[in-house]
Amino acid sequence: MKKIIVIGSGGAGKSTLSQKLGKILKLQVHYLDAYFWLPGWIERDKTEFISIVKRLINENEWILDGNFKNTMKMRMQACDTIIFLDYNRLTCFKGAAFRLFRDRGKSRTSMTDGCNEKFDWEYYKWIWNYPKIKNRVYDLIEKYRNSRNVFVFKNRKDTDRFLSELINHEAGAS
C-alpha cells in the first residue's frame, strides 16, 4: 500500500484514519480539503484544483484524503488501495458534531488556515443525505475491485481492527 485514497461521508473520520495510516506506513498525507478551500471558505477554481490533484497522484507514494467526485475516478485509477468508510449517517453526524464542538472557531490540521470550524447547515445536510449518493461510490469502486486493494469499513470497530492488524503486520515486516 503506497498510494491510498480514503473516502466516505463527512464526519466518518477520514482525516483521523489518514493521519494514523500515514504514521504507520510512513506515507505523506494530503488532505484534499486543504487544497480545495482557500482561507475564509472560498472554493479554489475547479480547474486549478484538478491540476493540483493530478500533480499529487503523480508522486510515488501518498495518502489522499477526501471525496470530491470530480477527481475520484482519476484518484481510483492512480491508487493501489481504496479505503471507504461507509458508516451509518448517525455515526457520521455525531462525528461532525463532535468535531464542531472540539474545534469551533479554529482551523483543524486537515484544513486550510482561515477555514475555521463552524456550523454549516449544507454540510450537515450533505452528511445526512450521503446514503443516497454512496451507491455511485460503490459503482466506481466496483470497477477497480479486481485490480486494487479495497477495504470497506461499516463501523469504527472494524476500522480500528484493520489499523491494529496493519500495525502488527508492519512490526513483523521490520
Walk me through what this model shows.
The chain has 174 residues and is an alpha/beta fold. It has a single domain (3-150), classed as Rossmann fold, CATH 3.40.50. It is built from 7 helices and 7 strands, in the order βαβαββαβαβααβα. The chain has helices spanning 14-25, 32-36, 46-57, 69-78, 89-103, 121-144, 156-173; strands at residues 3-8, 29-31, 37-38, 42-43, 62-65, 81-85, 149-153. The strands form 2 sheets. The protein has a 5-stranded parallel sheet, with helices on both faces. It starts with a strand and ends with a helix.
Secondary structure: elements and pairs:
Blueprint: E1 3-8, H1 14-25, E2 29-31, H2 32-36, E3 37-38, E4 42-43, H3 46-57, E5 62-65, H4 69-78, E6 81-85, H5 89-103, H6 121-144, E7 149-153, H7 156-173
Parallel strand pairs: 1-5, 1-6, 2-5, 6-7
Antiparallel strand pairs: 3-4
Number of alpha- plus pi-helical segments: 7
CATH C-level class: Alpha Beta
| Residue fraction in strands | 15-25%
Distance between the termini: 15 Å
Task: Describe the structure concisely.
The chain has 174 residues and is an alpha/beta fold.
Annotation keywords:
174 residues, Rossmann fold, 55% helix, two-stranded antiparallel sheet, alpha/beta, globular, 16% strand, five-stranded parallel sheet
